[in-house]
Amino acid sequence: MECSLTARDRVGLQDFVLLDAYTSETAFLDNLRKRFHENLIYTYIGTLLVSVNPYKELGIYTKKQMDVYMGVNFFELPPHIFALADNVYRTMISETNNHFILISGESGAGKTEASKKILQFYAVSCPSTRLLDNVRDRLLLSNPVLEAFGNAKTLKNDNSSRFGKYMDIQFDHRGAAVGGHILSYLLEKSRVVHQNHGERNFHVFYQLVEGGEDDLLRWLGLQRSCQNYRCLVKGDCAKVTSINDKNDWKTVRKALSIIEFSESDIEHLFAIIASVLHLGNVQFDANIRGYASLSNSNELHWLSKLLGIQTHVLQEGLTHRKIEAKAEEVLSPFTTEHAIYARDALAKAIYGRTFNWLVNKINESLANKDSSRKTVIGLLDIYGFEVFHVNSFEQFCINYCNEKLQQLFIQLTLKSEQEEYEMEGIEWEPVPYFNNKIICDLVEEKHRGIISVLDEECLRPGEATDLTFLEKLEETLNGHPHFVTHKLADQKTRKTLERGDFRLLHYAGEVTYSVKGFLDKNNDLLYRNIKDVMRQSQNNIIKLCFPKTEPDTKRRPETVATQFKSSLAGLTDILMSKEPWYVRCVKPNSGKQPGRFDDVMVRHQVKYLGLMEHLRVRRAGFAYRRRYEVFLQRYKPLCPDTWPNWKGTAAEGVQRLVKHLGYKPDEYKMGRTKIFIRHPRTLFATEDAFDVCKHQLGTANKTPARLLTFFLILEIKLSFSTRIETCWRGLMARKEKEKRAWAVKVIKKFIKGFMTRNQPACMDNSEYLAFVRQNYLTRLKDNLPKSILQRNAWLTAPPIMQEVQRSVTKHLGTSQMPLSSWFIVLTRNLCSLQLKATASSLFRGRKENYPFSVARPFADTRISKKDHPLSYSVPVIKYDRNGFRPRFRQLIFTQVAAYLVEEGKVKQRMEFSSLRGVSVSNLSDNFLILHIACDDVKQKGDLVLQCDYLFEALTRLSVVTNNKNLVKIVQGSVRFDIQPGREGFVDFKSGSESMVYRAKNGHLMVVSREMREIN
Ligand SMILES: Nc1ncnc2c1ncn2[C@@H]1O[C@H](COP(=O)(O)OP(=O)(O)O)[C@@H](O)[C@H]1O
Ligand SMILES: [Mg+2]
Taking CA 278 as the corner, what is the angle to CA 273 and CA 280, rounded to the nearest 5 degrees? Predict the structure, then answer.
């Protein structure tokens, strides 16, 4: 795959930054088209990812692909959504800050798919435990549930998101995904009661009717045909070949259980979906007085059952409203027209509020209970820019939202870029860009903006209508360059506008909106008495959605548009506090066809997505910048003049450093407070060199000659470092993969072993039986009989050991072996078990690699028998107190002292009486530090040792010194005496690779591989 990726990679340019004619839209388009036709749908502009919807499965999202992209530098592999996801993740880990990925593009361009791929990548690539796997499953499964309730088929997209979604994925300090939180934005509720031709209601309705089990449908009073439900067939396309409602139902049903919805919640949820279907079928007749009366009592019966509200209460609520007359409240009957309006308003309210309940419930299930600090990656997948034949209030809100996101994009990339250059005194080649602030203001400005005018009209007493709203708009916005109506237009434009239309010139193009329904949709009024009716419901979810404490409608609630405006302002604040990354999705044709690249359509998107401007900024500008102090502090070891300390200013230090590193003049610029680096590759190469250097510095002996050699070598390495890093990251990813494959093998073997446990020992069960034996012996250790004569007090052995047990107990009674020999054998074993028990009390649950030592028997000595005059001896590595050079030694215990010996020569003797203690870390390294009390400064200090038999040696030591409190298990760092009065430190941490080196701060850094205990 890697090879084929490299071959594919040669098509066109994978980063537009390298485009010669970078100002030419045609060249841009040519490159995009060329790659698209080779199924290369991703191309970069620096770190921004452009993605063209292929409308076909490309097989590029496999687990294998994820492995390829895991941990590899962004620019070293062909562009991919996984590369972006991986880069964001690694930046978050190394900089411990928050990020977000803004995925934008018009409806059907591939935003939701992109966000799902990112989530899947994190689910596979992040470290996890069994506990975290739960979070991971929930994060992944929240998607089909939210899509069922919030997505629908539209003319643009068979799975169009009809709500905005911002999802935070929370990571702990180890980079594991530990929780999530979802914010949802403005669900298009009107779809519940009306769909345009060729569109459908929300998926969940069709899924229930098509996929629900017979019993369930019977219980809900539903029939298995969408044609029976008016609100499912308004668009006349209940069945769509690309959608499998039956299968999707199964997925959703399973997901609901996994994200911890109780059976009762699920029942009540289904009851609500069904009640909306029944409500849609409720019809009204006019009685003789012209008032509405219900024409079908069957629907009312089911509504009453499913919502748990008495029939007559429901009936009254659906046909009357309460009005206040003087001090009294009286019921006023609806006309049929009014009743239909109230019914639809209720259906929308029930569905909309249930959707919010669902999001909250999912959030509860994703919530991370631990309060330690988290970093987050936010994913924003919000409805794309939308233009239909007839556009209404919903499109107005959606396109306003896109306008705001475009503004944010401009602010974050173009404008802030320019401003910073100016601040830093760096010459800026002006990049002209279209600032859409004028359109945002047109919509949202106080008093003058469209939303203000709309609200005013909604709240105004008297006969306000959609048309009076249009007139107000014309009065207020007459002459605005981005606003036109039939009345305000010139002759030519007028022909393209109806009388009830207004047209906005959005950044993405012109959209004509029909004002019909604007007032109602913005008011979103639900009569007060129908709310009272819903409050009587016995359905638990409806009870929560219509709380008794809801403020009464004496004061008008905020209108929909104003609420939306505030929530978008909130979203902007959330995003502004994080580091941005962008995926710009492009739709290649309007027919959802694979392989068709419609030049006109793509050109238009390239233009309005601001891709050309972004490219120009990238080419004019510099990819990275760092403050001088930060840059110098990090990279000063790369130059002999700046290492270890630079005496001059930070800026001078940086200048010296980059000169030494051979930066060419056009690769960087010096600003007032920062260095600007033009290409990412320059920074990567520097970073790679730094990685190499870090390790070298730990061991380099810093005589001038050696330093010079060291720097020479370093410079050679610098040029190779990029390549080395690629290989290294690839290797790490492959190792991780091997580890997982190993785990799968072990688990499979375990299961096979279990299944064949009662068969004679064979390949399949040998390891499992060894495990059973060990397990039995461990239990036996804690439950040994008090006397060898208590034959019945032995623990029952597993089947494979029963033979042995029988023979032992038989021998105990009738053996030819004298009892004294038995006693010796047993005592020796008991002694060994006793030692194991002591080890357990010292280390169990306190040191990471202890569980792996349990199965290894303790030996009396580790040095060969022939030179064994002492009570215990073991080989160790001793680290010099100055410089931490490793030396091979033997550690020997007698009854009174410990000796450190080199080839028969005693190098150090330590009386046990002067042994103050032994420190070991809680991690999986094998280091021990012997602390020795000594006042004589000329004496040697504490001992830093590494021992492969750490648990055995320390258990022996604690027994021979008869001191159970000798061993101290510490976290982080151990202070020790280099010699009396001079202190040194050993720092411990976990990492992906075991390493021991002298850190820059002079401490001995011990990095051990994190170990997971297999339970
Ligand atoms: N990367 C992709 N590979 C294959 N098909 C895709 C890809 N992205 C999008 N699609 C197709 O396009 C459809 C619309 O994509 P979607 O992400 O729902 O659009 P948006 O969220 O931008 O409206 C999907 O249902 C899928 O069929
Ligand atoms: Mg979508």
Answer: 95
Q: What is the pLDDT of residues 756-796, one digit of tens each?
A: 877 777 777 877 887 888 888 778 777 777 665 565 667 77
Output the average pLDDT for the chain: 84
DSSP 190: G
3-class DSSP state of 905: strand
Closest CA to 249 of 365, 144, 151: 144
Q: Closest ligand 1 atom, CA of 381?
A: 21
| Biggest CA pair distance of the chain | 121
Output the six-digit token pair for 194.
Answer: 């009306």
User: In which band, very low, low, confident or very high, does the pLDDT at 719 lie, cut at 50, 70 and 90?
Assistant: very low
Distance CA 879, CA 789 (A): 51
Q: What is the DSSP letter of 951?
A: H
Contacts of 344 (CB under 8 A, 6+ apart): 192, 193, 194
Annotated binding-site residue? 109: yes
Residue nearest to atom 9 of ligand 1 (CA): 110
Indicate which ligand has the atom closest to the C-alpha of 107. 1
CA–CA distance, 164 with 212 (Å, rounded to integer): 28
Q: Cβ atoms within 10 A of the Cβ of 921, count?
A: 25
pLDDT in tens, 369-405: 777 778 999 999 988 788 888 999 999 999 999 999 8
- Tokens matching residue 962: 């008869």
Model pTM? 0.65
Q: Is the CB of 105 under 6 A from ligand 1?
A: yes
Cα separation values, 941 from 380, 579, 756, Å: 58, 49, 56
Q: Is 721 annotated as a binding residue?
A: no
* Axis crossing angle, helix 130-150 with helix 245-258, rounded to the nearest 10: 140
- Catalytic residue, candidates 31, 43, 157, 559: 157
Q: What residue type is assigned to position 15 of the chain? A: D
- What is d(CA 299, CA 282) in angstroms, rounded to the nearest whole number? 6
Residue 420 CB partners (closer than 8 Å, separation 6+): 625
Cα(82)–Cα(686) distance, rounded to whole angstroms? 24
Token representation of residue 645: 């300390």
Average pLDDT over residues 799-823: 58
Confidence grade of residue 304 (pLDDT, cut at 50, 70, 90): very high
